[in-house]
Task: inverse folding
């Protein structure tokens, strides 16, 4: 099939490469001409403008946006006047599902179809494939099935779930039509919320292991320091690179996230090149908001989100308030 890709960043460019490897034709556009020229040199059809991009697509066109959520509407405003009835726009970024519902409703009277495709796979997707969570009209999802199948990892990416051979569908292939407009990004939103929790659990556990040698140090005896009553219980110097490597084999906590953690620790045991300020791109916040709306407790996911806020120093003032109160009621002076 033919697909147009707008946005040739870390994921968009690799998705194009994976599609071309599977025999699909890709028309590409990016605000950076060098990105376009690079993929054109690998076999894609390059475009210098959005108008040229649309002209080089054969109706009914399929244009996939792989851009930050914050600029999707701006891109749509420029793209949709150039399209014709029957064309399909796909948003593969991390948009809020509310925006998908609004966009689909706005494009429908123009005869344009809109699919929201939550895409997981990161920078390794070209080799591993992409997990695709799709929302929108069934007819368009089925029409673009060969595209989704080429991007997805395929059945052999994981051992088959017992009993799954009796169930039809595409989930085993690595892509799924999750429901109407917004459903794809809703599922991806929760996927990323869970990701926050998993990442936080690994990080907290490894931090405990890293500090399990605290008993070897000297400890002040004052009113501001909780005494370590049994320093002999904390005499361990753990090799975190070895432990994460160990856990990758036979442990119930194995995962790709653990694979990446082990890889990071073996090359940089103290993670010196990272500052520890962890960003959040929106999905964690939306997950917590959805949990609140539907009345479902999400203790772990909420705590993981708030830890990211704290990592950026956004807890500094509240900690100052705590110090001010302690000083006020007890004369406690902050330790240097």
Result:
């Amino acid at each position: 099939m033919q697909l147009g890709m707008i946005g040739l960043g870390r994921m968009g460019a690799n998705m194009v490469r994976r599609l071309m490897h599977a025999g699909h034709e890709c028309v590409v556009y990016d605000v950076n001409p060098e990105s376009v020229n690079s993929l054109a040199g690998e076999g894609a059809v390059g475009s210098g403008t959005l108008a040229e991009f649309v002209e080089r697509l054969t109706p009914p066109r399929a244009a996939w946006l792989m851009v930050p959520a914050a600029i999707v509407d701006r891109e749509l405003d420029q793209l949709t006047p150039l399209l014709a009835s029957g064309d399909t726009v796909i948003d593969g970024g991390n948009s809020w599902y509310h925006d998908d519902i609004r966009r689909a409703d706005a494009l429908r009277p123009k005869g344009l179809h809109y699919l929201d495709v939550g895409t997981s796979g990161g920078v390794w997707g070209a080799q591993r494939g992409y997990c695709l969570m799709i929302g929108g009209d069934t007819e368009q999802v089925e029409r673009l099935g060969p595209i989704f199948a080429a991007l997805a990892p395929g059945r052999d990416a994981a051992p088959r779930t017992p009993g799954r051979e009796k169930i039809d569908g595409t989930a085993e292939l690595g892509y799924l039509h999750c429901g109407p407009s917004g459903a794809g990004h809703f599922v991806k939103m929760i996927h990323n919320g869970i990701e926050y929790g998993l990442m936080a659990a690994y990080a907290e556990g490894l931090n405990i292991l890293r500090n399990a040698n605290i008993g070897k140090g000297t400890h002040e005896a004052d009113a501001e320091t909780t005494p370590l009553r049994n320093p002999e219980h904390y005499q361990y110097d753990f090799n975190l690179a070895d432990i994460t490597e160990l856990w990758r084999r036979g442990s119930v906590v194995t995962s790709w996230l653990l694979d990446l953690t082990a890889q990071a620790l073996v090359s940089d045991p103290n993670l010196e090149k990272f500052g520890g300020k962890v960003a959040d791109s929106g999905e964690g916040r939306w997950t917590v908001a959805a949990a609140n709306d539907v009345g479902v407790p999400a203790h772990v996911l909420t705590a993981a989100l708030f830890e990211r806020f704290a990592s950026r120093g956004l807890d500094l003032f509240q900690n100052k308030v705590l110090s001010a109160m302690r000083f006020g009621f007890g004369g406690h002076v902050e330790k240097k």
Q: What stands out?
A: The CA atoms of residues 105 and 114 lie 9 Å apart. The chain has a mean pLDDT of 95.
